[in-house]
Amino acid sequence: MNVLFEKSVKYLKGVGPNRAKILSRIGINSIGELLTYYPREYDDRRTYARISNLKNGQTATISGKVELTDIVKINPYLWVFKAAISDSTGIIYATFYRKPSFRYDAFATLKKDFQPTRNIIINGKVEYFGNTKQLRTDEYEVITNPNVVTIHTNRIVPIYDLTEGLSSKFLRSIMFNAVKEYANQFSEFIPKKYREQYGLIDASSAVANIHFPADYAILEKSETKLVFDEFLLFETAVQISKLHRTEKEKEHTYKLLKHYLTPFKNKLVFEFTQAQKKVINEIFANLQSKLPMNRLLIGDVGSGKTVVALSALLLALENNFQAVFMAPTEILAEQHYSTIKQYLEGLNIKFELLTSSTPSLKKKTILKQVEEGKIDLLIGTHALIESKVKFKNLVFAVIDEQHKFGVYQRKKLIEKGNVDVLIMTATPIPRSLALTLYGDMDISVINEMPPGRKPVKTIFTDEIKAYEFIKNEVKKGHQAYIVFPLVEESDKVELKSAVTQAKHLAQEVFAEFKVGLLHGQMPGKEKEQIMSDFKQKKYDILTTTTVIEVGIDIPNATVIAIEHAERFGLATLHQLRGRVGRSKDLESYCILIGNLKTEDSKKRIDIMLSTNDGFKIAEFDLELRGPGEFFGTSQHGLSELKIGNIVRDIDTIANTKKVAEEVILSDPKLNTQENVLLKHELLQRFAGKFKLFQIG
Question: Whole-model pTM above 0.85?
Answer without folding.
Answer: no
